Known about the structure:
This protein is α+β, with helices and mostly antiparallel strands. It has helices at residues 3-13, 32-35, 43-49, 94-98, 106-109, 141-155, 164-167, 170-182, 188-197, 205-209, 213-217, 221-227, 254-267, 297-301, 303-325, 330-341, 345-356, 370-379, and strands spanning 62-67, 85-88, 116-123, 229-231, 237-239, 271-272, 275-276, 362-368, 382-385, 397-403. The model is unreliable at 1-8 and 10-101 (pLDDT under 50). Strands 2-1-3-8-10-9 form a 6-stranded mixed beta sheet, covered by helices on one side. It has a two-stranded antiparallel ribbon with strand order 4-5.
Amino acid sequence: INLAKGLTDFKRQRGTERTFHSTFQTSKMLPRQELESVAALSLNELSDIGSMSFANTWSDISTKHFESGKHASGLRNKTDISCMSVHRTLSAPHTLEHSSHCCAPETELGAQRRPVLNVATWNIAAPNNNPFEFWVSHQNEEYNDLMLAIQKHIDQPNPFEAKIYQIFTPDMYAELRAELALQGVSGLEKLDLVWTRDLMHRMAISEFLKDRSFGEKRLISMPDRITSSITIKNGLTVFRPSPITGIQNDMDSVKAWWSLWTNYMFKTAPIIEGNDKKSVISLLDIIARAKYPALSEAEEEISIPLQILCLALFDAVYIHLLATVAPKTWQPLKRSLHTALFEHKAARCVSILQTQYGDADVIFIQEASEAFASRASVCLDHFVLRPSGVDGRRSQLSLILARKSLFLRHTARD
Length: 414
């Protein structure tokens, strides 16, 4: 997202009440003066306000006021609303106008309440802990140097760029294959053919990183999302060794990274919904060709080991690239970004809801973590409603937070 362009476009439109979904792919509805100062935020300021994770730049939070009845305004107190709003009159869904059994009777509430629901929605983007996903303001000029150098190498690869096998060596592939065999993964003979006839001979940037088919087939993004972080037995969160996760260990070379990576993927047992899993790779599923038709039948058949191989190559190539262009600076910069953007994220998100959106009667939350759900249930004056069939492998909970003083918990339906 080009924040500067978004601000320019906004200034052209500033006399309107429109939301930012046409300007920003994901956006937070901010007061105008606050939004115009976003570009000037330093990393320390961003850390202090702890507002939205830059993993989803201003993270798609907006407030809409749905009104039924005769009232001309959907705002209880316009001066208290800290975001721009979209209001409708006489447009409440029929369920809100006629289904009073879901709301506590006024006698239970002990006070009259206007027929207004203040509703907020927020995609928290909990699965994402990539410190480099968006270009941010950083007080250290070495950050800009790093980002520009990486962009240049990707846009214009060196004529002598390395091939995959020069970064991820045949010996590393053999070790990966042996670990997969120990885990009981099938299809390894076919994986050998993909490696020896195709992947190992590709140019690392121009023919691998920039090959859009990997995105269409989800061979990197799917395993990245599932394996980027896990919870282990002592309740700690640990991260996959990669430039795009929150790991703090030293990874100054592909060799140093590889030992960490294999230990994490094959020898670390995650806890999912209270149950131990054998290893991180046991969390992966077959990628269905019916959902991602770019996959061939052969690729679907070996999609589990193929995902693992492609993810290993992706991480290795970026380690190599960063160690080449900024060997001394990329890891300290990465750690500073992680601290500012992702540490205590669940607590900060709940705090924002308490302080900035305390008047919201219903809050729709997308891509939330278990940590957020647990904290919200304790700290907010809302019931935390969640679906029964939750996929515990990912921090992608969809939640509805309903104000306790307005709704009856026993009327909730999955």
